Amino acid sequence: MGVENMFEDFPFTYSFAEAALRNPKTRFAVIIDADKYKLEAVNMRIRTERGISDFHTYTSLESAVKGEGTDGRMIDIVCCAAGPQVNAEVIRKVKGFCLCGVYCEKPFTLSLSDADDLVRIEQEIGVKVQINYLRNHDQHHRAVIDYIRNGGIGDLLTVRTLYKGGVLAVFPHTSALLSLLFDKAISVSGVYSPLLNTRCLEDPNIDGVVRYCFAPQNREINVSATATGRGEIENNTYLYEFEFTGTKGRISILENGWGTRYEVMEPSRVFGSLGLLMPYESRRIPLELKTDSPREFMVDGLENLICAIENNGETACSARRARDAEEIAHALAISAAQNGMCVELPLKDRDHAFANAQAGVNLLKKEAGIKS
């Protein structure tokens, strides 16, 4: 549902359509958009560029379900590329439409109360929801998380993250991935970064600390989140980096996820006589980290959703995970607005965070194509 990106010549590689066309378990059945002009343009693009024609076009999900049902074809998975309001609308109708899964574009919602309701539906009805925070789907990123949780770098000591683009629009990418590593976020504190967000001055960069519970070690760990000015200034390219340091080694995910550095803790070459250990880069990166795996985020995201449906498991970025990831970003905005005051999680007021950072919410609406 929703064809905005593909209408604007967005590469197929990063589209829901590409994921559906590439997966051998799925058949590309319908495209849906209320704008008939855009719908026809994308219809012709898919037929021309991909050479397929065995699909139909509709202006609403209701008409698609009814039309396909008349032909004896059921819609099992709906991919939503039209923003938070459509995400909520589709998830609330999954039972009536007999849907098995919903693959949603980010952000998940613009209201924590809405998010809580959608998480409840996900859990009570059993529909599988996948939110498109891409690194949660990527084989390499997930392998790094599993390696750390399984003790690959020993006891986890520190975690540092870099992000760029605005705390509300971009930081949830970071907190969504960290939700796979940690068990829950406990509190946050943040201050406004001196580095402006050149994409949108109203959605500030915020430096802060997120305190997590880490069950494998039965303790709490602070994660530093730092806004960075590195990257391409002209279009303010999204940038994410992670550094995980343990007692046996350090793993750094660099270059927006396309580079990896693996270091091993060894006696210091300068202060080794004092028993000090230092991380030194190793040429041998453990195979478990899957650094050579293809980076096919959308394809992997759909495959992960299908596996969750087939095995009745949780997706890599379920409604629950996305809700919590977005809550952390809004909590950081609250903390910065209150001069770095520690904010406990979960937030008690389900709407305060969003009202407190309305400019950032307006940016999310703009990026999602919501005019109101």
What pattern of helices and strands is seen along the backbone? HHEHEHEHHEHEHEHEEEEEEEHHEHH
| CATH level 1 name of the largest domain | Alpha Beta
Our count of domains comes out at: 2
Please tell me how large the radius of gyration is: 21 Å
Shape field: globular
Number of helices: 13
What is the percentage of strand-forming residues? 15-25%
Here the CATH topology of the largest domain equals Dihydrodipicolinate Reductase, domain 2
Largest sheet: 9 strands, mixed
N- and C-termini, Cα separation = 19 Å
Poorly predicted segments: 231-236
Whole-number mean pLDDT: 86
Query: Which architecture name of the largest domain does CATH use?
Result: 2-Layer Sandwich
**Which structural class do the helices and strands define?**
alpha/beta
Count the strands? 14
The CATH superfamily of the largest domain is Dihydrodipicolinate Reductase, domain 2
Pfam families: GFO_IDH_MocA
Protein name: Gfo/Idh/MocA-like oxidoreductase N-terminal domain-containing protein
Domain Gfo/Idh/MocA-like oxidoreductase N-terminal: 15-133
Organism: Candidatus Giovannonibacteria bacterium RIFCSPHIGHO2_02_FULL_46_20
Summarize the structure.
With 372 residues, the chain is of the alpha/beta class. The protein has helices spanning 4-7, 16-22, 36-50, 61-70, 84-92, 94-97, 112-125, 139-149, 171-181, 297-311, 319-337, 352-356, 358-367, and strands at residues 30-32, 56-58, 77-80, 101-104, 128-131, 156-164, 184-192, 206-214, 219-227, 239-246, 249-254, 259-267, 277-281, 343-344.
